[in-house]
């Protein structure tokens, strides 16, 4: 697809330009992304209200509790399926809106349906692989668990951009995902780690902000432990739901934007035949410099900062 080269995120990145591009793209498309994410977040928040975990607090019989948990399985699966559908729509909009002004959210909803079922199938397979990776990671203790999670997340980020840009089937999507993930393996893992840390920090800050109006309830639960169970009532408070929806809408677009940056970096590097080495050949260790693209001369045609 020739016009994909005109996408504002399509270029070879280093970790600095990747994060700056993430921020600049997010700012430039903030209003539509926020409004779309706001609607999606509201639907997800509303759907989550059908799972009332407070019911488990007063159950002492393990068999009754197990039966109650089984009743939550179907709603959780339906919410997950709905979440994946929203993710597909958001990816399609972020990939194609910048290169086609006629591609609005309604067109994105219709056209993203083409990729939804294959994406769902791949996610089931990825969940299976991820479970195996986590088990192997547990055998390798804490470091292995974190590395397994990062690896699975890196694979996840590539899936939808590959399907939508390259029009691949399920088998080819899986092969391309593995190829692009491993092509710049350590930089990809490093970028994902940095992004996840940033996302966690931002989420913690926002979570603290939205809990401020309810701080009195937490103080009361500390002073009166017998009423600690009432803290969970906060999650059903309309104000909490509204604030949570707004916060989710602010952070929801970050993941598909980052996924596009990761994919476009790999694709641009592949097409230009100049990708970063997998590892530092000195004892196979990874250096901080491995997260960065190799420097270019000022007049090099591939220099992203070149001034014509």
Q: What Rg is obtained from the alpha carbons, in whole angstroms?
A: 22 Å
Distance between the termini: 26 Å
The largest pleated sheet is described as: none
Helix fraction by DSSP (H/I, runs of at least 4): 55-70%
Q: H/E series, N to C? A: HHHHHHHHHH
Percent strand equals under 5%
Shape: globular
Structural class: mainly alpha
Mean pLDDT: 80
Helical segment count: 10
**Overall tally of structural domains:** 1
Number of strands: 0
Uncertain residue ranges: 275-284, 288-298
Explain this structure.
The protein is mainly α. It has one domain. The protein is 69% helix and 0% strand. The protein has ten helices and no strands. α2 runs antiparallel to α3, α4 packs antiparallel against α5 and α5 crosses α7. The two termini are 26 Å apart.
């Amino acid at each position: 697809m020739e016009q994909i080269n005109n996408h504002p995120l399509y270029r070879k990145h280093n970790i600095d330009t990747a994060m700056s591009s993430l921020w600049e793209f997010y700012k430039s498309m903030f209003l539509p992304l926020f409004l779309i994410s706001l609607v999606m977040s509201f639907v997800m928040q509303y759907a989550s209200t059908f799972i009332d975990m407070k019911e488990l607090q007063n159950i002492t019989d393990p068999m009754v509790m197990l039966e109650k948990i089984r009743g939550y399985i179907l709603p959780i699966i339906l919410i997950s399926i709905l979440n994946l559908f929203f993710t597909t729509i958001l990816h399609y909009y972020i990939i194609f809106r910048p290169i086609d002004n006629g591609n609005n959210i309604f067109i994105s909803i219709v056209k993203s349906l083409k990729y939804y079922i294959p994406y769902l199938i791949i996610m089931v397979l990825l969940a299976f692989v991820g479970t195996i990776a986590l088990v192997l990671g547990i055998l390798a203790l804490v470091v292995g668990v974190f590395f397994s999670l990062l690896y699975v997340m890196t694979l996840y980020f590539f899936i939808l951009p590959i399907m939508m840009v390259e029009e691949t089937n399920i088998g080819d999507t899986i092969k391309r995902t593995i190829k692009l993930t491993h092509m710049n393996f350590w930089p990809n893992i490093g970028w994902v780690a940095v992004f996840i840390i940033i996302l966690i920090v931002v989420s913690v800050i926002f979570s603290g902000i939205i809990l401020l109006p309810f701080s009195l309830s937490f103080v009361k639960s500390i002073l009166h432990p017998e009423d600690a169970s009432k803290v969970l009532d906060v999650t059903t408070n309309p104000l909490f739901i509204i604030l949570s929806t707004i916060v989710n809408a602010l952070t929801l677009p970050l993941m598909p934007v980052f996924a596009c940056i990761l994919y476009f970096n790999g694709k641009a590097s592949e097409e230009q035949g100049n990708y970063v080495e997998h590892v530092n050949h000195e004892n196979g260790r990874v250096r901080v410099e491995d997260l960065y693209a190799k420097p270019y001369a000022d007049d090099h045609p591939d220099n992203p900062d070149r001034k014509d």
